[in-house]
């Protein structure tokens, strides 16, 4: 017995020793928010105050020291996120996650972002202020990478750390630019519909913008074919990306005449795919000559959103059409040549190697025509021999000046400086929103817009052989949509159609007018806005269009085929005001019904796979807003019923019955229990959280959440057969900046400032975010010092 006790004590001792070692190891991985560090290249001491939410307030004597310090503290909270972001454009995700990401890597490599980046970096002036500050930021990242603790994800995936370069910065910006594009989801699908089903199926689809819709007004005081296979490539590739996609946004800026205190109020909430960690990293930099409170992408030195005491700026996605597809024709005697209007031309051939975790490297070759990469052979979906090339404006410009544009924005002192920086942002298309302490409000669409021949419809795959479907000119930035200090005293954007360019509405993949109509209605009816009022508006969950959709639908439905319980449900739906509190039953029934209307209208012609792709397009969102207005139309007929031609009344009635049955199946017959909180939830997912055993450690949530798709508080979700609405994208931050009290402007992040699961700031904002609360964006040094319990002093390395 003594011997057994001795063995047990020995085992217990070893176990305690092991647990202690694990505890010590885990603690070494925690970010350092206090103490002192020696940093290479610093000219003088830098003090970093971390406020109660882990946001660094960096006080330095030079801008280079400030950006070097930013790189260091950014890396200690977001190094894993930086690593993933820079790998996307280079096709290096398979090295981390294995063979399931090979098609994604092939697709991203074929876009040519990395090739374009290399060309741009070779032409940079390394002595310019922009490059010097960017390099200082990278140097800070790299020192943390060498000397700081390695994030736990590197241990779990087995990848090595390596220095960050300027190429990584440009590649991250390029990835961001591509996620804004919608043509890859829409054009091949529309071409498939036209070629396989016939042009009559296009008539009731909202391919072009209806001029009667709510548009963003300009104001200037001075003035089964290859298409069927192609449509799945980008859809499948982007679905597997382990980082969020940029999707939409709201912003409005109120002139002094619209506010109670007579100063500009600025609101912005960019809509981006939810993930963990949050997209943005907040940082406040202060030197004797420079101050900026900014929101940074992982690995990008200059903030895309920001403000100081003089100006505030933000963005929404423009959604312009900057990507076109072309059919090419191969030379039958030489497959390495393709047809042009002036004869046969040689393809450029590019070979790439993809490293795959636990597998042999994969080498693949693709061709590039004058239009861009030929997608055949890049993904297994394309079996047809007809080559299709993809032309994307981002890689068309000889040099990429997007980073110069961002740098010019952060250095601006006034509206004139700010506008001068914007022409350098040729892609992605952005609506850049502006307000300042002088009372100016403005909005500019930044993108290199181009004109096509009038006969060309760019929403279909074009003929690349004749030369008559090519851009015929470029539009000057001064002619881009914009508004400066309009007489209605505000500017706004909700990704809806902007006003005309040279007398024509510019083609794009704009979102329906739902949010725009609500924003305009709220802003037009009030002249004394405050910060608190604006916060409430940014959380608004009411759709004015959804009740109209119900009215357009229910008036065609007879009541004889419904049970008393179903009629009660329809009455409830008919009296619904289009709002989305957690206890709403009508909201749940509405979205179930919409899904079944779409399914019963489109799936019979498109088939399950194409129908799923259709559900992921902005075209579908616009159709929901407009399709119910059509009493007749070819989509209403179910082609599977040979002896009957279905009408709108038939499809709506069938869909309402399907929705009702599905909800009884999921929640029982008592419809009072079909509340929105049971179906509409949000979980912030970390890539490694997909492993079920690690989910609770890396993921944050799930939580029931108010809001819905296409309301101002745009908690968006995909429609699918489950009938549960798991939120996938929404406000990546909610900012409200009041120039009458700049130091008490407010914001919130979805989860927290840190991407390190061991940090106390990994999820310390999530409860406030879900509840619709805000916190202060601190700018007063005395207040910052008084509330910051964590202070990190960075010293020049001796």
Automatic annotation (TrEMBL):
Annotated TM spans: 7-26
Phylogenetic placement of the source organism: Bacteria, Pseudomonadati, Bacteroidota, Flavobacteriia, Flavobacteriales
Family affiliation: Belongs to the peptidase S45 family.
UniProt keyword annotation of Nuclease present: no
Active site residues according to the UniProt entry: 249 (nucleophile)
Keywords on record: Calcium, Hydrolase, Membrane, Metal-binding, Transmembrane, Transmembrane helix, Zymogen
Cofactor(s) demanded: Ca(2+)
CC cofactor note: Binds 1 Ca(2+) ion per dimer.
Source species of the chain: Croceivirga radicis
Keyword Nucleus found: no
Listed Gene3D superfamilies: 1.10.1400.10, 2.30.120.10, Glutamine Phosphoribosylpyrophosphate, subunit 1, domain 1, Penicillin Amidohydrolase, domain 1
Biological-process GO terms, alphabetical: antibiotic biosynthetic process
Protein name: Penicillin acylase family protein
Binding site for Ca(2+): 321, 324
A GO molecular-function descriptor: metal ion binding
């Amino acid at each position: 017995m003594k011997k057994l006790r001795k063995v047990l004590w020995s085992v217990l001792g070893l176990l305690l020793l092991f647990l202690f070692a694990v505890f010590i190891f885990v603690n070494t991985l925690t970010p350092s928010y206090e103490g002192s560090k020696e940093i290479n290249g610093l000219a003088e001491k830098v003090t970093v105050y971390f406020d109660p939410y882990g946001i660094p307030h960096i006080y330095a004597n030079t801008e280079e020291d400030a950006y070097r310090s930013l790189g260091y503290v950014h890396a200690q909270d977001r190094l894993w996120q930086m690593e993933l972001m820079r790998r996307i454009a280079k096709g290096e995700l398979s090295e981390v996650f294995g063979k399931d990401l090979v098609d994604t890597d092939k697709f991203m490599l074929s876009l040519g972002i990395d090739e374009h980046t290399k060309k741009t970096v070779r032409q940079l002036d390394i002595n310019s202020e922009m490059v010097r500050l960017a390099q200082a930021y990278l140097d800070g990242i790299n020192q943390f990478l060498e000397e700081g603790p390695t994030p736990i994800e590197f241990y779990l995936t087995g990848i090595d750390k390596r220095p960050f370069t300027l190429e990584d910065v440009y590649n991250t910006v390029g990835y961001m630019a591509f996620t804004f594009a919608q043509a890859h989801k829409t054009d091949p699908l529309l071409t498939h519909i036209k070629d396989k089903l016939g042009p009559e199926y296009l008539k009731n689809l909202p391919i072009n913008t209806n001029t009667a819709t709510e548009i963003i007004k300009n104001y200037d005081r001075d003035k089964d074919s290859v298409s069927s296979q192609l449509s799945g490539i980008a859809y499948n590739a982007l679905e597997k990306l382990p980082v969020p996609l940029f999707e939409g946004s709201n912003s409005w800026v109120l002139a002094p005449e619209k506010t109670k205190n007579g100063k500009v109020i600025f609101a912005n909430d960019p809509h981006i795919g939810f993930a963990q960690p949050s997209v943005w990293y907040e940082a406040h930099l202060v030197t004797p000559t420079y101050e900026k409170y900014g929101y940074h992408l992982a690995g990008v030195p200059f903030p895309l959103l920001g403000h100081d005491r003089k100006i505030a700026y933000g963005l929404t996605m423009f959604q312009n059409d900057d990507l076109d597809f072309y059919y090419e024709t191969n030379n039958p005697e030489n497959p390495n040549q393709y047809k042009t209007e002036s004869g046969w031309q040689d393809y450029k051939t590019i070979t790439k190697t993809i490293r795959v975790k636990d597998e042999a490297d994969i080498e693949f070759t693709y061709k590039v025509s004058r239009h861009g990469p030929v997608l055949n052979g890049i993904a297994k979906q394309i079996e047809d021999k007809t080559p299709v090339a993809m032309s994307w404006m981002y890689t068309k410009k000889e040099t990429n000046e997007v980073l110069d544009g961002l740098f010019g924005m952060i250095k601006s002192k006034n509206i004139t400086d700010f506008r001068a920086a914007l022409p350098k942002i040729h892609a992605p298309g952005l609506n850049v929103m502006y307000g300042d302490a002088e009372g100016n409000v403005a909005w500019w669409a930044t993108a290199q817009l181009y004109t096509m021949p009038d006969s060309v419809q760019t929403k279909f795959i074009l003929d690349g052989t004749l030369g008559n479907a090519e851009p015929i000119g470029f539009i000057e930035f001064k002619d881009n949509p914009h508004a400066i200090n309009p007489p209605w005293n505000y500017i706004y954007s909700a990704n809806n159609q902007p006003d005309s360019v040279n007398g024509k509405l510019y083609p794009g993949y704009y979102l329906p007018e739902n949010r725009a109509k609500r924003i305009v209605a709220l802003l037009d009816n009030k002249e004394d806005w405050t910060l608190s009022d604006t916060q409430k508006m940014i959380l608004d969950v009411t759709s004015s269009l959804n009740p109209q959709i119900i009215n357009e639908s229910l008036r065609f439905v007879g009541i004889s085929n419904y049970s008393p319980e179903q009629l009660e449900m329809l009455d409830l739906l008919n009296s619904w005001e289009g709002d989305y509190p957690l206890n709403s039953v009508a909201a749940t029934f509405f979205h179930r019904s919409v899904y079944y209307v779409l399914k019963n209208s489109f799936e019979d012609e498109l088939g399950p796979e194409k129908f799923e792709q259709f559900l992921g397009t902005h075209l579908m969102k616009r159709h929901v807003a407009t399709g119910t207005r059509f009493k007749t139309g070819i989509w209403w007929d179910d082609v599977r019923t040979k002896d009957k031609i279905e009408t709108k009344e038939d499809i709506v009635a069938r869909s309402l019955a399907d929705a009702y049955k599905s909800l009884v199946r999921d929640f029982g017959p008592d419809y009072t229990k079909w509340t929105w909180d049971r179906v509409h939830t949000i979980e912030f997912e970390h890539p490694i959280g997909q492993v079920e055993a690690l989910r609770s450690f890396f993921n944050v949530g799930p939580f029931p959440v108010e809001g819905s798709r296409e309301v101002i508080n745009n908690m968006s979700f995909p429609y699918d057969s489950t009938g549960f609405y798991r939120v996938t994208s929404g406000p990546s931050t909610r900012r409200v900046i009041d120039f009458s009290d700049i130091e008490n402007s407010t914001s919130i992040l979805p989860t927290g400032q840190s991407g390190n699961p061991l940090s106390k700031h990994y999820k310390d904002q999530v409860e406030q975010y879900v509840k619709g609360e805000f916190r202060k964006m601190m700018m007063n040094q005395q207040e910052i010092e008084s509330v910051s319990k964590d202070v990190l002093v960075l010293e020049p390395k001796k």
